[in-house]
Amino acid sequence: MQDRSWWLGTALSGALVVLAGAFGAHGLEGQLEPRFAAAFETGVRYQAWHTLAMLGVLAWRASLPLVGQALVLGLWAAGMLLFSGSLYAMALSGVGGLGVITPVGGVLLIAGWLALAVSVARARPGGQSPSGNT
């Protein structure tokens, strides 16, 4: 199976989204300062959307591999780790200083979307990438 590791990682990210969402809603209810509760919720939301986006790129890549799709997946994975991960760590530890990592993750998420746009723009009609590589 092509991209087995990406599929596995994306599936685990989806499971983590559900676990983190439930933990945030039930296990942390009333336990966090409002700003930390909001940060945790933001981390869950961004991870969920990017996990879904990764599923879309993986499905697309299975039928039409293009140059840049793997880069998109890598940027989103790193972005989720840094963005959502720093928000989770900040909320759970109560250390607001961890938020300095969050913008780096955000930049990686944005870079992933821009890489997706470039990948699509560079694709030739009929679906082949300019170099034919994936």
TrEMBL record:
Question: Mind listing the UniProt keywords for this protein, alphabetically?
Answer: Membrane, Transmembrane, Transmembrane helix
Primary localization class, coarse:
membrane
Please tell me whether the keyword Transmembrane helix is annotated for this protein: yes
A single GO cellular-component term from the record reads:
plasma membrane
Recorded superkingdom: Bacteria
Q: Where is it localised?
A: Membrane
TM ranges: 71-91, 97-121
- Family that this chain belongs to: Belongs to the UPF0382 family.
**The protein's name in its UniProt record:** Uncharacterized membrane protein YgdD, TMEM256/DUF423 family
Q: Which organism is it from?
A: Halomonas korlensis
